[in-house]
Specification:
With 257 residues, the protein is an alpha/beta fold. Helix content is 46%, strand content 15%. It has a single domain, classed as Alpha-Beta Complex (2-enoyl-CoA Hydratase, Chain A, domain 1), CATH 3.90.226.10. Bound molecules: 4-(N,N-dimethylamino)cinnamoyl-COA.
C-alpha cells in the first residue's frame, strides 16, 4: 500500500517508509499515523522484508502530532478517538525498525522516533517534547521512553521546559545510535538495516524481543525469558547452518527457518 502521505520503497530486504507532508513539517495526522502503522504491520508479514527504515527525508522528521486536528477537541473526544491504540500497534512489530532522523523530531515526532528500535540522526537533527508549550504533556510515550533513554533528571528538564536538544546531545545521552552528515542519514540507516537484514531472521526477531524485555521487565524475569529464546533457537535450521559454517570457515546461508 502506498498513500501520498507515506512513500514506501524497497531496497532489497529493507523497506523504507518516508513521511511525506512537507507543507506541515510532516505533522502526524491520524491518517498518517494509521498509514505508518498499517504499512509496518503489512511489512511485518511480508517474507522478503527483514528490516524497516522510517524517515521524514533529509529536511524534517516530524514536528509532532497535527495540532490542527487536536486544537478544539475535548478530553472526552480525545479519549474516545483512542489514538494511543494506533501507536501501541507499532510496539507489536517484530521486525527491526531503524529511524533516520533529520531536522525536527518534536513531540509526537520524537515519540515516533523513540518507538523505533534504533535511531540514526543527522547533524542537524533537533529533538524535543515541546507539548508543555501548548498546554499539554506528551501522550504517545514521551515521558516514559525519553526518561528510560536519557534518565530522569534530563527528561524532567526537557518535558517540563519544552526545551529542545541536539543530535550531539542525544548521542552523548544514548538516545541515538549514530550522528552522520545530513545527506547521509537515510543511507546510513539503510546500511545498518541491511546488515541486520542479512542476519538470521528468527534470531533477529527473538533478539529484538529480548532486548525490549530489558527495558520492560524486572531483571530476573528478563534473564529467564532470554534463556528460553536462546534454547528455542537450537530448533532452527539457521542455528545449525550458522555454527556449521563457522566450523567450515565459510559464510553462512540463512533461510529464516
Ligand atoms: N501540527 C500542525 N502543523 C504544524 C506543526 C504541527 N505539529 N508543526 C508545524 N506545522 C505547520 C505550521 O503551522 C506551518 O504551516 P503554515 O503556517 O505554513 O500553514 C508549517 O508547518 C511550517 O511551520 P513553521 O512556519 O512554524 O516553521 P518554522 O521553521 O518557523 O518552525 C517548528 C518549525 C517545528 C519549530 C514549529 O513549526 C513548531 O514549533 N511546530 C510545533 C511543534 C510542536 O509543538 N510539536 C508538538 C505537537 S503536540 C498522542 C499521540 C501523539 C501526541 C499526543 C497524544 N496519543 C496517542 C494520545 C503528540 C502530541 C504532539 O506532538
Amino acid at each position: 500500500m502506498e498513500t501520498k502521505e507515506l512513500i514506501v520503497e524497497r531496497k532489497g530486504a529493507v523497506a523504507v517508509l518516508t513521511l511525506n507532508r512537507p507543507e506541515v513539517l510532516n505533522a502526524l495526522s491520524d491518517s498518517l499515523v494509521e498509514a505508518v502503522v498499517s504499512e509496518m504491520e503489512r511489512l511485518d508479514k511480508e517474507e522478503g522484508v527483514r528490516a524497516v527504515v522510517l524517515t521524514g527525508g533529509s529536511k524534517v522528521f516530524a514536528a509532532g502530532a497535527d495540532i490542527k486536528g487536536m486544537a478544539d477537541a475535548t478530553s472526552q473526544e480525545m479519549q474516545k478517538s483512542d489514538r494511543l491504540a494506533k501507536w501501541e500497534r507499532m510496539r507489536k512489530i517484530s521486525k527491526p525498525i531503524v529511524a533516520a532522523v533529520s531536522g525536527f523530531a518534536l513531540g509526537g515526532g520524537c515519540e515516533m522516533a523513540m518507538s523505533c528500535d534504533m535511531i540514526v540522526a543527522s547533524e542537524n537533527a533537533v529533538f524535543g517534547q515541546p507539548e508543555i508549550l501548548i498546554g499539554v504533556i506528551p501522550g504517545a510515550g514521551g515521558t516514559q521512553r525519553l526518561t528510560r533513554a536519557i534518565g530522569k533528571y534530563r527528561a524532567m528538564e526537557f518535558v517540563l521546559s519544552g526545551r529542545r536538544f541536539s543530535a550531539q546531545q542525544a548521542l552523548e545521552w544514548g538516545l541515538v545510535n549514530h550522528v552522520v552528515p545530513n545527506e547521509l542519514v537515510v543511507e546510513e540507516a539503510v546500511s545498518l538495516a541491511e546488515e541486520i537484514a542479512s542476519r538470521p531472521p528468527i534470531a533477529v526477531r527473538l533478539a529484538k524481543e529480548a532486548v525490549n524485555w530489558a527495558v520492560d521487565v524486572e531483571l530476573g524475569e528478563g534473564l529467564v525469558k532470554e534463556r528460553q529464546h536462546f534454547y528455542k533457537l537450537f530448533d532452527t535450521e539457521d542455528q545449525k547452518e550458522g555454527m556449521k559454517a563457522f566450523l567450515e570457515k565459510r559464510k553462512p546461508v540463512f533461510k529464516g527457518k
